[in-house]
Design a protein that fits this description.
Blueprint lengths: L1 E2 L4 E2 L2 H7 L21 H6 L8 H9 L8 H15 L1 H4 L4 E10 H8 L5 E5 L22 H5 L3 H29 L25 H23 L8 E9 H12 L4 H18 L10 H18 L10 E5 L5 H10 L7 H9 L3 H12 L2 H4 L16 E8 H7 L6 E4 L12 H5 L3 H22 L1 H4 L8 E8 L1 H10 L7 H17 L20 H13 L3
Antiparallel strand pairs: 1-2, 3-5, 4-5, 6-7, 7-9, 8-9
Helix pairs in contact: 8-9, 8-19, 9-23, 10-11, 12-15, 13-14, 13-15
């Protein structure tokens, strides 16, 4: 290499070597090629403490004289960079794609809670019918170790088999019901590229357009059927989730999973760490069981039981708004940190906290934060309860299916309570009109009974696996006005699930009552009702596809 480290002149041989690792060896702007997978973060980390750029550092530190990665010293080199520079920030420089398959829907929520540094995508209950069986012929739901060891597997399987078999049996009659509402010879879709007019199938004379129309009709009926019946799926239903994320995000996720009470979560943490260690080993080394997290969880559960165990929720509000600073700071802090450990609404917890003395609040806060002897180091930080104080906080009650959709909002704070059947459920009107309400009610009753049995035998966390998607769960979301724009305009679009559209529409109405300045400007909030919520979205997809020349 000639020139200087900041203005290098690479030889022909060096350019050929660099071409294996960067997109353009001769440019100041380039990307790392897949050959640097697992190493690129350490290369970038050298920007802060070494002269010259990444290409120079590659040649001088990471490659041998033949232009190959120094595999024998690579791990030691990466680890030294991470330790020397502090891997809190450096851990964000290396990425990996992680597939988590055959995990329970309950577990995916814990995984997707890790919203910083990780981007998940989950198998959709709108497009997938959960009628598959494993190689033993069993329906695909988790059989928790805790249930097996308690000797309850037979009753557990009998109940969930019945529920899932009912779900499968109802797919066909529910589809036929929707086909009667929208007969194939009467349905209209705008599938022609560049043409917004909707056509019936018989009005199309182009084979490609007719195929696109048929795909749209089938998908329209299928998604409406799946949307209507997904409430029968139990939280134990197995699914897939894919994640793209950085080392720091994964490390936090692993720590959270491995420190959890449920065996499935601990096992997922162990196996995910093993998989990630193949490509970013040094970035996930600290993803281990965390004594601090476990201690805080135990202490807060004790406190919640002592203070709140005798109090039953009487709140029936599906959406409650806490706006601006119209509340006492200390009491609202206590309400937020108690929330995930209780079954009370945020408003009820706030009213309760108002009755506490300062010393009682101080004891609760110390249990939540802990002192240095338990925290151990600055990296062990208190939980999301201390993110309270947003100008807008909504306390929601909606079915677990709704929560699964809304939880993925990232630029806000949300905490949920444990899943249970005690907040009620709603049977979709279409199910009743199709004459299938009795089957729904039987599944609900059996799920409820199994939950109660598990609650006594293995505790409330394990019992969540038996709860169906249609049962309500309570959670809150705190946000600023910019995020409120995003949430409310996105989650009321026509193709959104009807249930969460209604919830967010109500949230916007409440906000408009309190906020006369900003909320009225959320003009893309859609208050219309769309029975066939996916029809236009699917047709639009066909129009885009038809622009492609085959």
């Amino acid at each position: 290499m000639q020139g200087t480290e900041y203005d290098p002149i690479f030889s022909k041989e060096e350019v050929e070597i660099l071409a294996e690792y960067v997109s353009d060896p001769s440019a100041d702007i380039f990307v790392f090629l897949p050959s640097l997978y697992g190493v690129g973060g350490a290369v970038f980390a050298r920007y802060s403490r070494a002269a010259g750029g990444a290409r120079v550092r590659l040649l001088k530190e990471f490659l041998d004289e033949k232009g190959k990665l120094k595999l024998d010293k690579l791990n030691e080199l990466v680890e030294r960079v991470l330790i020397a520079y502090g891997d809190d920030s450096v851990g964000e420089l290396e990425n990996a794609h992680l597939a988590l398959e055959n995990v329970s829907n309950l577990a995916t929520k814990e995984i997707e809670d890790c919203r910083i540094g990780l981007s998940p995508i989950e198998q959709s209950s709108r497009y997938v019918v959960y009628d598959q069986r494993d190689r033993q012929g069993r329906l695909r739901y988790l059989r928790p170790v805790e249930v097996v060891e308690a000797g309850l597997l037979s009753e557990y399987e009998t109940t969930l088999d019945y529920v899932l078999e009912t779900y499968i049996q109802l797919i066909q009659p529910m589809s036929e019901y929707f086909k009667r509402l929208k007969p194939e010879n009467e349905a209209e879709y705008a599938v022609r590229a560049g043409d917004s007019k909707a056509y019936k199938l018989q009005e199309l004379d182009n084979d490609k357009e007719r195929r696109a129309w048929s795909v749209t009709y089938k998908t329209d009926i299928k998604t409406k059927t799946c949307d209507t019946l997904r409430g029968l799926l139990p939280a134990a239903t197995l699914t897939n989730v894919g994640i793209s994320g950085n080392g720091r995000g994964y490390q936090n996720m692993l720590t959270k999973l491995k420190s959890h009470d449920l065996v499935e979560f601990q096992d997922l943490g162990d196996r995910a760490k093993g998989a990630l260690s193949v490509v970013i080993e040094n970035y996930v080394k600290r993803g281990n069981v965390n004594f601090y997290l476990r201690t805080v969880n135990e202490k807060m559960e004790e406190i919640a039981h002592r203070y709140l165990g005798h109090i039953e929720s009487v709140s029936r509000e599906r959406v409650e708004l806490f706006y601006g600073g119209n509340w006492n700071f200390e009491s609202m802090a206590i309400a937020h940190i108690l929330y995930p450990f209780s079954c009370l609404s945020l408003g009820e917890l706030y009213d309760f906290s108002q009755l506490l003395t300062f010393n009682q609040k101080k004891a609760i806060m110390e249990a939540y934060c802990q002192h240095k002897d338990v925290r151990g180091n600055r990296r062990n930080k208190p939980g999301r309860g201390l993110e309270f104080g947003y100008p807008i906080t909504f306390d929601f009650v909606g079915d677990f299916g709704i929560y699964r959709d809304l939880e993925r909002q990232r630029m806000l704070t949300q905490q949920r309570q444990l899943l249970n059947p005690y907040l009620g459920y709603v049977t979709p009107e279409e199910v009743i009109e199709a004459g299938l309400g009795k089957q729904f009610r039987t599944c609900v009753e059996r799920s409820y009974h199994l939950y109660d049995k598990l609650l006594v035998s293995v505790g409330k966390k394990v019992a969540q696996y038996a709860v169906l998607f249609l049962f309500n769960i309570r959670w809150y979301m705190g946000m600023n006005h910019r995020e409120a724009f995003h949430l409310m305009e996105l989650r009321t679009i026509p193709q959104g699930h009807p249930s969460y559209r209604k919830l967010i529409q109500k949230a916007h109405r409440l906000l408009c009552e309190q906020d006369l300045l900003i909320a009225p400007l959320m003009e893309f909030v859609d208050y219309n009702d769309y029975f066939w919520s996916r029809a236009e979205s699917e047709a639009a997809q066909r129009r885009k596809e038809n622009r492609i020349v085959s």
